[in-house]
Design brief:
The complex is a heterodimer of chains A (about 375) and B (about 700).
Chain A lengths: L2 H12 L9 H28 L6 H22 L2 H23 L4 E4 L2 E6 L5 E2 L1 H18 L10 H20 L3 H17 L4 H21 L4 H11 L8 H15 L10 H4 L11 H34 L3 H25 L17 H19 L4
Antiparallel strand pairs in A: 1-2, 2-3
Helix pairs in contact in A: 2-3, 2-12, 3-14, 4-5, 4-6, 5-6, 5-7, 5-13, 5-14, 6-7, 7-8, 7-13, 9-10, 10-12, 12-13, 12-14, 13-14
Chain B lengths: L2 H31 L1 H12 E6 L6 E2 L5 E13 L1 H6 L5 H11 L3 H7 L23 E4 L4 H9 L7 E10 L9 H4 L2 E3 L2 H4 L12 E3 L2 H5 L1 H4 L4 E7 L5 E7 L7 E4 L3 H20 L6 E8 L5 E7 L6 H5 L2 H7 L11 H4 L9 H10 L7 E4 L2 E4 L2 E4 L7 E4 H6 L4 H13 L12 H8 L21 H16 L1 H4 L7 H13 L5 H8 L9 H12 L3 E3 L4 E5 L5 E4 L4 E4 L4 H17 L14 E7 L14 E8 L6 E8 L4 H17 L1 E2 L2 E2 L29
Parallel strand pairs in B: 2-10
Antiparallel strand pairs in B: 1-8, 2-3, 3-4, 3-5, 6-7, 8-9, 10-18, 11-12, 11-23, 13-16, 14-15, 17-20, 18-19, 21-22, 22-23, 24-25
Helix pairs in contact in B: 11-25, 15-18, 15-24, 17-22, 19-21
The chains are: A mainly alpha (about 375), B alpha+beta (about 700).
Chain lengths: ~375, ~700
C-alpha cells in the first residue's frame, strides 16, 4: 500500500457524517452528470410540451423525483453492511428473475417498440425489470465466484458454471422480451467478471467465441425478431429506410453533427425542439447534448464518464475483498458497455438498441439501477480493506 | 489479489479506455470535421421556404402600350395546416367550398395536394408549392362568393379569399400576338430539376413560351422568401428570414400594337379570301421587319388562340385543341415553326447564283412552255410560252423554264450524276450565302431552321432512308404501295444520294426538298432591301426597371452578308420592283401610292389532306418598301392558300396600307403607324395605365 492511500484512509476515518466513505471524485462526477442530465431532459421536452399545450415541466419534475429516489437507493446501498448484502443476494436475484417473468405474461407486461420490457404500474409508472436484473446478476455471480468451497485459490469449473447459470437464467428471459441491448451489456459484464475472478483464461476465450457465434446464429435463426434485424440492418445501411430505425439513426447523427464545436446553446436546438429525433429524453438524450452543447459539452460528458470509470477501476483494484472487487468490476463493465452502446448508437458506431444512458437518460428503472450501481461502488470503496 | 487478476483488470481497463477514446474520436469527426455537412442537413430538415411571388414585369410595345400586364384576381385559398387538423382532414369543408364555387371536388382535392402526395403516375393538377402557404383553388372567384366565405370563417375553416396578380394580355386595338407573347404557368417538377439551366422557386409563376419564356429571368423578378423553422409535426416554431419580393423588370418590344393588330387582321382576311376561292387555307404567317436593324414590328400566326386562356384555367380539352391537327395546331407559331417550300420567292437566290456563275443579267433568255430535262418535261407555271425575254421580265412574270435551263446547264457542268470533285454549285452556294439552312436567331424559343437540300444534305438523307427505299415493298404501308411511289422508291434507292437533274432544276425555283420559315424569307428579303446585310430579327428592344431605368438595350446584329455584288443587288432590286409594276404583283398593288418591291410565290405541295384531297399550293408574297428608301420587309404566307399574288399579295398590300396610312390611293400621314416615317427609337415611359390613343 502506498503512502497516498494510507493518507486517504486516515482522512476518511476522521469523518463521521453519513457520507463517510464516499469517493469525492466519483461522487462529484456522478453529481455533475445528474445535473447535466436534468437540464438535458428539460431541454429535450420543454418546448415540445409547451407547444402542444402540455405541462412543459412534466418530464423535468418526474426526472428530479427519479433522481431523488435513486440517490436514496444509492445512499442505502452504500451504508448497508456487506454481509447483509451477501445474505440478501439470493433474494435480490430471485426478485429480478420474477420481474423478468412477469413482463412476459400478457396483460402484465407492456409492449413498447416491439419489446415486452416493462411492467405497467398504477399512476402511469412503469418499471423495467431488466435494469434491476443487471444488479442481481452482478452480485449473484460475484458471490459464487468469490466464495470458496474448495482449497483452490481460483474458481474452478464448477464455480464458473454455477456463475454462468446465475447469469444465464435472467439473460434467457431478457432474450425473450427481446432486449438485445441489455443482453449485450450483461454478456460483456459477465465475461469481464469471469476474466477478473481468476478463473482460467480459457473460459474468457470460450465465452467470447460463444458470444460471437451466438449473435451470428441468433440473427440467422430468427431468434431476433424482424424489428431487431431491421435495427441491425439499418445500422449497416442507415440511408436505406427513411422513416424507420435508419431514419432515427440518421436524424441522431445529423443532430449531433449540427451542434458543431460549441453547440446551439442549451434549450436552443432546432433539431431537438423540432423533435426530429425520437426518444430524445431517454435513449437519444445524448443528441440533445450534441446539438445544444456542441463538441465541447458532449466531449465533456464523455470525459466525466471516463473519470467515473477510471475511479471505479481504482476501487476494484484497491479492495482486498474478492467479492467487492468482482462487484466493482461488474458494475464498471456494465456502466462502460452501456455508455459505449448508447453513445455509440447515437453517433452511428453501434447498432440501434434501446438502452438508456447512465445518469443522463430519463427513466426511473434505469436511474435507480445505475444509482444503486454507483452505491455498490461506494460501498466497496468505503470498506476496501475488507 | 494475484498477478493474473491484476493483469486481467488492467486489460479490461485499457479496453474500456479505448472505447471511450473511440467515442471522443467519433464525436470530433461528427461535430468538428464534418460539422458543416451536418449543419446543412439539419437546416434542410428544419426549414421550409414560403414563396411570395414577385409582380411580373410588363411587356409593352415600342410606344409603351402594354401587351402583357397584371390584373387583380380574387383567389380562394386553402390553408393545408388548418384543414389537415380537422377531424376529417378537411373533406367536408373542401366539398362545401367546391360546390359553392361550382368546381368539382376531385379537382379541388387534387389542387390542394402537394405533388409528392399524389401517386407518381397521376400527378396532374397537383400543387407545386409548399404546405405552408395558402393554396389557391381558383384565381377568378366571384366577389360575392368570396365575401360569403370571408364573412363566415367558422363555416369555412382554413378557407380564405385573397387578391392575387393574374397575368393578363389586354389585347388593346384587338391585338392578339399570342405566339409572340407566349404565356405563363406554374413551375413544374421538370423546371425545378434545373434541366433548362434556370433555377426557380416552388410555386412561382414562370414564362412557358414566347417572350414570357425568352425574357423570363428579367420579367419574373425575385420572389420574397419567408423561411420558417418547423418541427417534426410540421408546425411552425419560428421564422428565420423574410425577404420582400422585388418586382420584375419590364420588357420593351419593337412590336407596335396597332400594326400588329393590322397584320393579324390582314392575315385573317387573306385566309378568308383564300377560303372564299375554295382553298383550304389551313394556316398562315405574316411578318413586318425593320430592315435597318432587324426589329420585328409585327408578326402574326394563323390560326391563333386566346393568350389569356391559360390563366383563365385551361381544361384538358382546351389544351388538346391547341395541338390538334383538326384545328390546324393553333399552338404552332407559323412564322418561325412553319416550314414551307418558298417557290418563286426563291428566284432572288437564283438570280444571285446565276450572276455568280457568269450569266449576263441583262441578256435575254428563252421562256418556253416546258423544258426537257433528261426524259422528263418540266412545265412552266401555267404552261405558258413567253418566248425570249430579258431576265428582269423573267423575274417579273415568274418564268420557271428559263431557270430550269440555267440550273440544268450548271448541273451538267458540275458533272451531272458523276459530279466533279470540286463542283461550282452556284445555286447551293448562293442559298448558303442567304443562310437558308440556318435559324434567323430571333429572340423567341423553339425556332426551326430551314432545309437546304445540297449535296451534303442529300448524302445524309440517303444514309438515313436508304433501307426504307431499297426495301420499300416490305417497309412501306399498304396505302403507300402505288405504282408512282414504288417507282419513286426505286429511283431513291438507286441514286438517292446524288443530286439529280430534277433536284437541280426544282431547287432553282424553290421547289423540291427546300423548305424555309416565313421569318427566314423575311430576313432574306430584308437583306436584299438593305444592301445585303443579313440581320438577326429581334423583338426585345430594352429591359426597363420598375423605377424607369434602362437596364439593358438590345442592339442590331448582323449575321452575314449576301453573296451578291452591288450590281447584282441593283439588278435584283429593279426586277423585284418590276414584279409590282409589270409582273405578277401588279394586280395586287394596282393604284398603291407608294413604290413597293416584292416577289410572288405559289408553291406546289405534295401529299394529301386528312379528307383525301390533294394539298393546295402555298401562297407567298415577300416584299420590302418603300422601294426608293427601303425601311420595311413584309412577308405573308398562307398555307394551301392558292396563288401568291391574289391571296398573300393582297394581304401584304393591306399591311402596307396600315403601315403608311393609305386608303385606296390616298396617303394620310396622320394615319400612318409611324407618323415621322420610322419606328420609334426612344424607349417609352412604362405604366400599366398607358392606353391606346383612340383618336388615331
Amino acid at each position: 500500500m502506498s503512502s497516498l492511500t494510507s493518507r486517504s484512509i486516515y482522512l476518511r476515518r476522521s469523518r463521521t457524517s453519513v457520507f463517510a466513505g464516499f469517493d469525492p471524485i466519483l461522487t462529484g462526477a456522478v453529481a455533475a452528470l445528474l445535473v447535466i442530465g436534468t437540464l438535458l431532459v428539460y431541454a429535450a421536452t420543454r418546448d415540445w410540451y409547451a407547444a402542444n399545450g402540455l405541462d412543459p415541466q412534466y418530464y423535468l419534475k418526474r426526472h428530479v423525483l427519479n433522481i431523488l429516489i435513486g440517490v436514496l437507493l444509492a445512499w442505502g446501498t452504500t451504508i448497508i453492511d456487506y454481509r447483509l448484502l451477501r445474505a440478501y443476494t439470493p433474494i435480490l436475484w430471485g426478485l429480478g428473475v420474477l420481474g423478468l417473468i412477469i413482463v412476459l405474461i400478457p396483460g402484465l407486461g407492456a409492449e413498447v417498440n416491439g419489446a415486452k420490457a416493462w411492467i405497467a404500474l398504477p399512476g402511469g409508472f412503469q418499471i423495467q425489470p431488466a435494469e434491476l436484473a443487471k444488479i442481481s446478476i452482478i452480485v449473484g455471480m460475484s458471490m459464487i465466484l468469490s466464495e470458496r468451497t474448495h482449497d483452490s485459490n481460483e474458481p474452478n469449473t464448477r464455480d464458473v458454471l454455477q456463475a454462468l447459470i446465475v447469469a444465464g437464467i435472467p439473460v434467457i428471459f431478457i432474450l425473450m422480451q427481446p432486449d438485445m441491448g441489455t443482453v449485450f451489456i450483461i454478456s460483456a459484464a459477465v465475461v469481464t467478471i469471469i476474466a477478473v475472478s481468476g478463473a482460467s483464461s480459457r473460459w474468457v476465450v470460450a465465452l467470447l467465441l460463444i458470444a460471437v457465434i451466438g449473435a451470428f446464429g441468433a440473427t440467422k435463426a430468427g431468434v431476433i425478431n424482424s424489428y431487431q434485424v431491421n435495427r441491425l440492418q439499418s445500422f449497416v445501411n442507415p440511408n436505406a429506410d427513411t422513416q424507420g430505425s435508419g431514419y432515427q439513426l440518421r436524424q441522431a447523427r445529423i443532430t449531433v453533427g449540427s451542434g458543431g464545436l460549441f453547440g446551439t446553446g442549451l434549450f436552443d436546438g432546432p433539431q431537438t425542439n423540432g423533435r426530429f429525433v425520437p426518444e430524445q429524453q431517454t435513449d437519444f438524450i445524448f443528441t440533445v447534448a450534441g446539438e445544444q452543447l456542441g463538441f465541447v459539452g458532449s466531449a465533456g460528458i464523455v470525459l466525466l464518464y471516463l473519470i467515473i470509470l477510471m475511479r471505479a477501476f481504482a476501487i476494484a483494484r484497491r479492495t482486498n475483498d474478492p467479492y467487492g472487487r468482482l462487484v466493482a468490476t461488474g458494475v464498471t463493465a456494465w456502466f462502460a458497455f452501456q455508455i459505449f452502446e448508447n453513445i455509440g448508437m447515437t453517433l452511428g458506431l453501434m447498432p440501434m438498441t434501446g438502452v438508456p444512458l447512465p445518469f443522463l437518460s430519463y427513466g426511473g428503472s434505469s436511474m435507480f439501477a445505475t444509482l444503486i450501481g454507483f452505491g455498490l461502488l461506494q460501498n466497496v470503496h468505503a470498506r476496501h480493506r475488507g | 489479489m494475484n498477478q493474473r487478476v491484476r493483469l486481467s483488470l488492467l486489460v479490461v481497463q485499457i479496453f474500456v479506455l479505448t472505447l471511450m477514446i473511440a467515442l471522443l474520436g467519433r464525436l470530433f469527426y461528427l461535430q468538428v470535421a464534418a460539422a458543416p455537412r451536418y449543419k446543412d442537413a439539419a437546416l434542410s430538415i428544419q426549414s421550409r421556404d414560403v414563396i411570395n411571388p414577385a409582380i411580373r414585369g410588363l411587356i409593352v410595345d415600342s410606344s409603351g402600350i402594354p401587351l402583357a400586364l397584371n390584373r387583380v384576381g380574387l383567389a380562394i385559398t386553402v390553408d393545408r395546416i388548418t384543414v389537415d387538423k380537422q377531424p376529417d382532414k378537411g373533406v367536408s369543408v373542401l366539398a362545401k367550398v367546391s360546390s359553392l364555387l361550382g368546381l368539382s371536388y376531385t379537382d379541388v382535392y387534387r389542387a390542394t395536394r402537394l405533388c409528392g402526395e399524389l401517386p407518381k403516375y397521376d400527378k396532374a393538377g397537383c400543387w407545386t408549392g409548399s404546405r405552408y402557404q395558402p393554396i389557391p383553388i381558383t384565381k377568378e372567384a366571384d366577389p360575392a362568393i368570396a365575401l360569403q366565405i370571408v364573412e363566415r370563417t367558422n363555416e369555412y375553416p382554413g378557407i380564405d379569399a385573397t387578391p392575387v396578380a393574374i397575368r393578363n394580355y389586354p389585347g388593346y386595338a384587338g391585338v392578339n400576338a399570342a405566339h409572340e407573347l407566349g404565356y405563363v404557368g406554374p413551375v413544374t417538377e421538370e423546371d425545378l430539376s434545373g434541366k433548362n439551366g434556370r433555377s426557380y422557386y416552388r410555386s412561382e409563376t414562370i414564362g412557358k413560351t414566347g417572350l414570357e419564356l425568352q425574357y423570363d429571368e428579367y420579367l419574373r423578378g425575385k420572389p420574397g422568401i419567408r423561411t420558417v423553422i418547423v418541427d417534426r409535426k410540421e408546425s411552425i416554431t419560428r421564422e428565420s428570414q423574410n425577404t420582400q419580393p422585388v418586382g420584375g423588370n419590364h420588357l420593351v418590344t419593337s412590336l407596335d400594337v396597332r400594326l400588329q393588330a393590322g397584320v393579324e387582321s390582314a392575315l385573317a382576311d387573306a385566309v378568308r379570301r383564300a377560303r372564299g376561292s375554295g382553298y383550304p387555307a389551313d394556316s398562315g404567317a405574316a411578318v413586318v421587319m425593320d430592315i435597318r436593324n432587324g426589329q420585328i414590328l409585327a408578326m402574326a400566326s394563323y390560326p391563333t388562340y386566346d393568350p389569356n386562356a391559360w390563366e383563365k384555367g385551361l381544361s384538358v380539352a382546351d389544351a388538346k385543341a391547341l395541338f390538334s391537327e383538326k384545328n390546324n395546331v393553333p399552338a404552332l407559331s407559323r412564322p418561325l415553326q412553319g416550314l414551307f417550300a418558298p417557290a418563286s420567292t426563291f428566284k432572288s437566290v437564283s438570280v444571285v447564283a446565276a450572276a455568280n456563275a457568269g450569266y449576263n443579267l441583262n441578256a435575254t433568255y428563252n421562256c418556253p412552255s416546258e423544258t426537257q430535262i433528261g426524259n422528263r418535261a418540266f412545265q412552266n407555271f401555267d404552261s405558258k410560252a413567253l418566248g425570249r425575254i430579258n431576265l428582269k421580265k423573267g423575274i417579273a412574270v415568274s418564268c420557271d423554264t428559263l431557270w430550269y435551263q440555267i440550273a440544268y446547264d450548271e448541273w451538267v457542268r458540275d458533272g451531272g450524276l458523276k459530279p466533279k470533285s470540286n463542283p461550282n454549285d452556284y445555286f447551293f452556294k448562293a442559298a448558303q450565302g442567304f443562310q437558308v439552312d440556318k435559324k434567323t436567331e430571333i429572340d423567341l424559343p423553339s425556332e426551326l431552321s430551314g432545309r437546304l437540300p445540297d449535296r451534303e444534305w442529300r448524302k445524309k438523307w440517303y444514309a438515313a432512308n436508304k433501307d426504307f427505299y431499297c426495301n420499300y415493298k416490305d417497309r412501306a404501308k399498304k396505302s403507300q404501295l402505288t405504282p408512282f411511289l414504288i417507282e419513286l422508291a426505286r429511283e431513291n434507292c438507286l441514286d438517292g444520294d446524288k443530286i439529280r437533274a430534277g433536284d437541280a432544276v426544282n431547287f432553282s425555283i424553290g421547289q423540291g426538298d427546300t423548305v424555309i420559315t416565313p421569318l427566314k424569307l423575311t430576313q432574306m428579303y430584308a437583306a436584299i432591301g438593305n444592301g445585303g446585310k443579313i440581320l438577326r430579327p429581334s423583338i426585345a428592344k430594352a429591359i426597363v426597371s420598375t423605377d424607369g431605368k434602362i437596364i439593358k438595350k438590345f442592339g442590331a446584329k448582323q449575321l452575314g452578308t449576301l453573296p451578291a455584288t452591288p450590281a447584282t443587288l441593283k439588278f435584283l432590286e429593279g426586277a423585284l420592283r418590276e414584279v409590282i409594276t409589270a409582273g405578277t404583283g401588279t394586280g395586287a398593288f394596282a393604284g398603291f401610292p407608294i413604290a413597293i418591291s416584292g416577289k410572288t410565290g405559289t408553291a406546289q405541295v405534295f401529299g394529301k389532306n386528312a379528307n383525301g384531297t390533294l394539298k393546295a399550293d402555298t401562297s407567298w408574297f415577300a416584299s420590302y418598301g418603300p422601294t426608293q428608301n427601303p425601311r420595311y420587309a413584309v412577308v405573308m404566307m398562307v398555307s394551301q392558300g392558292g396563288f401568291g399574288a391574289s391571296v398573300s399579295g393582297v394581304g401584304v398590300r393591306k399591311i402596307y396600307e396600315t403601315l403608311f396610312g393609305v386608303t385606296g390611293s390616298r396617303i394620310d400621314p396622320a394615319k400612318a403607324i409611324f407618323p415621322d416615317g420610322r419606328p420609334p427609337v426612344k424607349i417609352p415611359k412604362i405604366s400599366p395605365a398607358t392606353k391606346l390613343r383612340e383618336d388615331q
